[in-house]
Amino acid sequence: MSDFLIGFTALFSIINPVGMAFVFYDMSRWLTPAEQNRLARRIAINSLGVLLVSLYFGVYILGFFGITLAALRIGGGLAVAINGWRMLNATGARKAAPGGMDTAPIDRMAFFPLTVPLTTGPGTMATAVALGANHAGLHGLGTLKDLSLPLVAAVMAGAVYICYRFSAKLSQLLGDSGTEVITRISAFLLLCVGVQIILTGVTDSLLQALARVPS
Which of 136, 149, 208, 213 is most buried (most C-beta within 10 Å)? Predict the structure, then answer.
């Protein structure tokens, strides 16, 4: 249970499906409710795939390219912090659909940009890789502890679908002022999460450097 709570808290804070639901709504408001539902479902499935790949194979991919986990944390944290800072200082004007998006096939826009980097960006991947760094691997799925991380990924994908699916109702319920408040709070939390990831990466780097110093 503790592994699940730690993983869920970390990923939920970064993905922030409630806050990002308003961005999703602004970028897909030209779609019909049925199309928004289908798009939300595809994004949730894509997000589940990104999370599972990061959890189980992220460390091996990093090793192949010679990237340390500390470097990933610093880079991912920097990306998250910059994104949070931009959101925090963005103007209050509502976002319009990006050029050409109103004619783009739904299935194509489901992965980019709505899944990556909007929903599961570098910070999410870095966090998932860090969570799965000490995981037993695919052969260890027989224990409850090993099931905690894929369960976190599944729950997060479900949260993304629910929040995106009902993004229009959330926006109507809160109104412009309520949406603005939640967006700002979400941006500040995202900035703090990014800074924390950077600090963790720097601390890991320093500890590794000190460990190599001859006593």
Answer: 149
- Nearest CA to 73 out of 36, 31, 128 is that of 128
The separation between CA 183 and the C-alpha centre of its own chain, rounded to angstroms, equals 15
Please give the share of the chain, as a percent, with pLDDT higher than 90: 23
CB-count exposure of residue 6 (10 Å: 0-12, 13-18, 19+): middle
Long-range contacts of 105-112, Cβ-Cβ distance < 8 Å, separation of 24 or more = 106/31, 106/35, 106/38, 106/39, 106/42, 107/42, 109/39, 110/39, 110/42, 110/43, 110/46, 111/42, 111/46
Contacts of 149 (CB under 8 A, 6+ apart): 3, 7, 55, 131, 132, 135
pLDDT band at residue 145 under the 50/70/90 scheme: low
> 0.85 cut: is pTM over it?
no
Q: What average pLDDT does the structure give for the chain?
A: 81
Q: How far is CA 25 from the centre of its chain?
A: 17
**What gap in Å lies between CA 136 and CA 112, rounded to an integer?**
31
